Amino acid sequence: MSFSEQRFDVNLSILFTELPLLERPAAAAAAGFGAVELWWPWIDTPTPPQAELDALRKALDDAGTRLVGLNFYAGRLPGPDRGALSVPGVEAERFRANIDVAAGFAASVGCTALNALYGNRVEGVDPHLQDTLALDNLVLAARAADAIGATLLIEALNKPESPLYPLVSAPAAIEVVDRVNAASGLGNAAFLLDLYHLSMNGEDLAAVVDAYAGQTGHVQIADNPGRGAPGTGSLPLEDLLGRLRKAGYDGWVGLEYKPGDRPSAEAFGWLAT
Q: What distances in angstroms separate CA 193 from CA 20, 155, 158, 208, one per listed residue?
């Protein structure tokens, strides 16, 4: 199965970042993409003014791009944070304040996948306390997602780049997916399978695909090393995506890679090969 048979969307929080946020959907459309995804764009606030939400919705509509993935508030990302929902105190409160805002915005643009980054371990805080807080908040997020017909995504990151993040393997993320589904009774939590992160952890990517394709709600890719476009590293991304399709995954594949030293619009040549 070739790249041409995949459904790709562009992550506008890592590609086209040389442009203001509201110009990125049109740039993605000009590059040939009808679908995009985003990290939470307002890193300083979980509850931006309605006018800013409306402006982003208009930019997506005007460009004819569909938002197919959105992160809940996750703190400073990019930056030192890796989510907020398991971090006691202000950050967990910010996550809870964001749940209905993010779900409401997703509903307004037809987005049906919401990613909840778990958050870093906090020095001096009992990991069990963080995990209990996380489950409570993830169940709230699952309910909000379910109310708009959306999937709640749980992502594994990689330990070299996120040493304080506890979900640094596919099994660790799947365990949380199962725990949330059991606690909520909704069954709408799923795995966000990011081939770059899993490769950085040294996992057997083909084995992960075979084991967890049925629990995968979204896929993201970048090559390794370098987190660049497909073909800039050594990962067999075309083969792995084909394997995912054959295993039953028919969803979107998010392009979450760095464009390098060139403009983002020039970072898609691999699609023509």
A: 28, 7, 12, 9
Contact in structure between 68 and 29 (CB atoms under 8 Å): no
Q: Determine whether 184 is exposed, middle or buried from the number of CB atoms within 10 Å of its CB (0-12, 13-18, 19+).
A: buried
Residue type at 139 in one-letter notation: V
Paired tokens of 152? 């709640």
The single residue of 155, 161, 175, 238 carrying the catalytic annotation is: 155
Active-site option among 37, 91, 238, 256: 256
Q: Which residue has the tokens 């987005």?
A: 111
What is the helix (H) or strand (E) element at residue 155, kind and residue range? Answer: strand 151-155
Q: What is the pLDDT of residues 63-92, one digit of tens each?
A: 999 999 999 999 999 999 999 999 999 999
The candidate with the shortest Cα–Cα distance to 156, out of 171, 167, 145, 144, is 167
Residue 93 known to be catalytic: no
CB-based contacts of 170, cutoff 8 Å, min separation 6: 156, 191, 193, 198, 203, 208, 211, 212
Active site residue 23: no
